[in-house]
Every structure is written in structure tokens, then in C-alpha cells.
Design goal:
By secondary structure, this protein is of the alpha/beta class. It has one domain: 2-enoyl-CoA Hydratase, Chain A, domain 1. Helices cover about 45% and strands about 25% of the residues. It contains 11 helices and 9 strands. Strands 1, 2, 3, 4, 5, 6, 7, 8 and 9 form a 9-stranded mixed β-sheet that branches. A hairpin with a 2-residue loop joins strand 2 and strand 3. Helix 2 runs parallel beside helix 4. The radius of gyration is 18 Å and the shape is globular. It starts with a helix and ends with a helix.
Length: about 230
């Protein structure tokens, strides 16, 4: 889905969101809330420049609009896998963006992310999985690694991986499988502005992913293992 359509549905009371390159930023109004919108488009890779620009956008919101909710719109094909970006220390830029998001949270900014197109690999970590509420449109594509690449790494055939994906969401891409794993809080359908308002009214900064994965039957070991470790501490 095109980002302008998503913003218009999220912010039916008007917005001033614009695109510069592959960066989306601005503000929108959703019922009683004015939210800062920061995101990416065109299935872009997150390189050093884009990570730094997104971090600057977060810092600007913290400085200019205390406690204003931040909505990340996610559409990325992952971190940029280029020699130049690795030499420049892309991991440090991504970490800087993650630290800025955490600083915003500690300063009282509710943080919501919405995967509206695709979210792959490391490009999804700092601006998606760092959010208090991580949601996706049902048709969004979310995966860490494609089946072809997974087959090369694991030396398991794509056919076998596809078969495993029918019984385990770990091997299967897609928003619905990520929901089962607990990586998503919810799939947003219908009235997106109502979904956003509900999310903002029920912000919880506790990480419930391992609990959700266990309850939904998609990630069965993380929660009990943690409980055993805590019990023996």
C-alpha cells in the first residue's frame, strides 16, 4: 500500500507528512492526538544516511514536542549490505537510531510502529521492533530471511522448509506468522485511525513478546525457559 494512503487512513483529521528521498516525516492528527510520523518507503535499504536521518527526526520530536506520540511507518528491504556502509560502521548508526528511540520512550513518547509494506532483517529492528506497540497490515511481508537464502544457510531444501512452515511459523514469512511468534502485537484492519487510537490508549512499555508467542502457539520455548532460569536464580 502507498504510504500516503496509509497516512490518510491513520490521520483522517489532516496531516503534514512529506517524503524526501526514501524518508517520510511530518505530523498528523488522529482524534484527540497529534502524532509525529517517521518512516521509510520504496522498499528502501537502511544505510548510514537514512539511519542518521531517522535518528535526527526522533531527536527533533523529543526536543520540539515533548511526550508527543511517534508513529513509525515501516517499509524496508533490510539494512544496506554494502562494503562502504560496513566500513563506515552501519551497526553503530543503527545502534544510534535504537538509542534515540529508547531515549524518546524514557522521555514519555508513546511509540507505535506499523509495517505497511515489507520489513526485512536488520532494517526492521530499530524503527519497528523497538516500538511499544508493533503492528502490521495483514498483507505486509515480514521476514528475517527468504526461503531461498535460508535453504543455502541451513542446507535444507526449500521444499522441506516450505513443508516445515505449515506447522511452525518460525520457517514461514508473513505478518500472520510473525503475529503467532509474538513479534507483532496485532494486525490492523478496517479503520486504521481507530486502531491507532486504541494503541495509544493502551501503551505498555513491558516486552510481552515471549509471552504472546507462547500463548499463540508460535514460539513455545522462550517463555518457559526464561521462567526456569528465573526460578533457579
Amino acid at each position: 500500500m502507498e504510504w500516503k494512503s496509509v497516512v490518510e487512513q491513520l490521520c483522517p483529521d489532516g496531516h503534514e507528512v512529506s517524503q524526501a528521498g526514501n524518508l517520510i516525516r511530518g505530523y498528523g492528527r488522529c482524534g484527540p492526538h497529534t502524532v509525529a510520523v517517521i518512516g521509510t518507503t520504496n522498499h528502501t535499504e537502511v544505510g548510514v544516511e537514512l539511519a542518521l536521518a531517522m535518528a535526527a527526526a526522533v531527536i527533533n520530536v523529543i526536543h520540539d514536542y515533548p511526550a508527543r506520540p511517534i508513529v513509525f511507518l515501516v517499509d524496508t528491504s533490510g539494512q544496506r549490505l554494502r562494503h562502504r556502509d560496513e566500513l563506515l560502521g552501519l551497526n553503530g548508526y543503527m545502534a544510534h537510531l535504537a538509542k534515540c528511540v529508547e531515549m524518546a520512550r524514557r522521555r514519555g513518547h508513546p511509540i507505535v510502529s506499523l509495517v505497511y509494506e515489507q520489513a526485512l532483517s536488520g532494517g526492521f529492528l530499530a524503527n519497528g521492533m523497538m516500538a511499544d506497540v508493533c503492528a502490521a497490515l495483514p498483507e505486509a511481508e515480514i521476514r528475517v530471511m527468504g526461503l531461498a537464502a535460508m535453504a543455502r544457510v541451513t542446507r535444507i531444501s526449500e521444499e522441506r522448509l516450505s513443508e516445515l512452515g505449515k506447522s511452525s511459523p518460525v520457517f514461514a514469512p508473513g505478518a500472520k506468522n510473525y503475529l503467532l511468534l509474538g513479534g507483532l502485537d496485532a494486525l490492523w484492519e478496517g479503520d486504521l485511525s481507530a486502531c491507532l487510537m486504541d494503541a495509544l490508549q493502551s501503551i505498555d512499555t513491558t516486552d510481552h513478546r515471549r509471552t504472546l508467542g507462547h500463548e499463540r502457539g508460535g514460539r513455545m520455548l522462550a517463555y518457559p525457559v526464561v521462567q526456569r532460569v528465573l526460578a533457579s536464580a
